[in-house]
Design a protein that fits this description.
The protein is α/β, with parallel strands linked by helices. The chain is about 40% helix and about 25% strand. The protein has helices at about 5-15, 20-40, 50-60, 80-90, 100-115, 145-155, 175-180, and strands spanning about 70-75, 95-100, 120-125, 135-140, 155-165, 180-190, 200-205.
Length: about 210
């Protein structure tokens, strides 16, 4: 199945209507990622069909939960999920942080190529970066273990901010470790079209 049809079927399964401009940008982002990946090894996923499923649809699966206005994607890699969510929702402001120069160069290229005014790319280690603002939402997709992610995310959080952790298996064993840093509000099962892998979204808030 070609990427456009796979994306359309996935969006239909998710029950989401995406603007035609956003759909075009998602497919352009995919094209750029495929090209850059050949030279710079940005992701282990190689073929277009798998990228639609493992990257685009996986990121889009959290769209309705992650509705914060000013968002930070820690360890964004090739822009997942932050770049994808920024494309779909231009009203959100996204900062994409990664320490890998090859990946942030790709993200800067993609931001310029797609004309995204709501994306800022930062090349820095999360432990060393000094943000100029606090964020309403901080997200990561398998950046590190849950307790460590909560610890790293807290300094960037505005009051009542949400911390979102995209994970595979339900993190029952890690919850007690996280409680001291954050309150776990919800653990949602994510249904990613065409993907049988176990996926969850953990919502936390900093303990004040």
């Amino acid at each position: 199945m070609n990427p456009a049809n796979r994306l359309d079927e996935g969006l239909e399964q998710l029950g989401l209507a995406v603007a035609s401009d956003s759909r075009t940008q998602l497919l352009r982002y995919l094209e750029e990622l495929l090209q850059w990946n050949k030279a710079y090894n940005l992701t282990a996923v190689r073929d277009a069909d798998s990228m639609v499923i493992k990257h685009l649809l996986d990121s889009i699966s959290v769209l309705e939960q992650v509705a914060d206005t000013r968002c930070l994607d820690l360890g964004t890699g090739a822009g997942l999920p932050g770049m994808v969510l920024a494309i779909i929702n231009p009203d959100q402001q996204w900062t994409l942080l990664d320490s890998n120069g090859k990946k942030t160069r790709f993200l800067t290229h993609a931001r310029i190529t797609l004309g995204l005014k709501n994306v800022t790319v930062v090349n820095a280690r999360v432990e060393q970066w000094q943000a100029n603002e606090k964020f309403d939402g901080v997200i990561s997709r398998a950046f590190t273990e849950l307790s460590r992610f909560a610890e790293l995310a807290r300094p960037f959080c505005a009051p009542s901010a949400n911390i979102w952790a995209m994970m595979g298996k339900r993190p029952e064993a890690a919850i007690d470790d996280v409680i001291s840093a954050c309150r776990v509000n919800t653990i949602s099962t994510l249904n990613v079209p065409f993907d049988d892998a176990e996926r969850h979204l953990v919502q936390l808030q900093p303990v004040t």
